[in-house]
Amino acid sequence: MTWTGRFCLWMLVLAPPCWLLSNGYQRLLANVLETLLELSGKRVSVYQLQVYAPFDVVLFTAMCLASTNATRSARWRALLLGPPILVVIELLVVTLAALPAVLFRGGATDSMVPRFTHYTIETIVWVSAPLIWIALLGPGISRSATPELRHPPFADRARWKG
Amino acid sequence: MWRRLMRTGRIIPNLGQEANSNRLVARFLGRFVTAWLLGILILSLLPAIEAGAVQGTVASLAVTLRLLPVEVRVTPPVIHVMNRISVEIVPDCTPLLPVLALWAAIAAFPASLGWKTVGAIGGATVLWIFNLVRLLALVPLLIWAPSLYSFSHLFLLQTAGLLVVCALYVLWIRLQNRWVVD
Q: What stretch of H or E contains B75?
């Protein structure tokens, strides 16, 4: 079975419970965000947070479980380290996304602010899980990859001319 | 003397396979994150890009639905389908962010400028088509199974989008290798 096949199978298993947990998890994330912003002296109420979480964690888990060409120890290490890192990224991203709105509160907010907030939040969807997967399993996979994939940045014979 | 030779590049230190791999992956990640941040900053500063993507998505979706043929009435950015549902196209419904993710990954990868351009244009085209298919799949769901809409929209199709981006990227690398070898 290919990597994609294994990934899809794991996603099928993990997605439904994640969907059920999603609202509660995002509420918890909103509470932590409120606390973090309060620490900096800004009192903010977050009514709803829709940031794809914890689907990024599930996505990462499925990617790790599907990566059978990485060693078992590397996969375990990734599965242990990855989710906490992703949670930290979620918190960093939502804090960064909320900052412009908090800092410029009461002032004339440019239309750039909501767009920046929106696009920053999308980082969780499109970037965080694949990025952490590459960071934790990329080097290991590259050494055991098929010849076609033994190429920069996953190869050792890379020449970085950009 | 050895240190001086290494500094001047006459002797390349053997860092070992693992260290070298780690270094290369770190460099790729650094470039990718920089390109992504630059991209979201440009998108935030230039609302015309977002507006253009929404307009383009509305137009192409309306044309595709009419070709199917489905009764459609367009009052941008809303599309009324069969007088039963109204679909509002928002920036999330456009392929802007998947395209940005692919472009950032392509920019972070060491390849010739020509090959990067081919990947960027080809990838954006495929992602635009995929996005249309995604929106077309959501229309019947909205009509006949609205309870499944949220799950499919937010999770299944978003994950499928991410898979398509990854698949296009791997394909681009493989084609480049084949092209270089040939």
A: strand B72-75
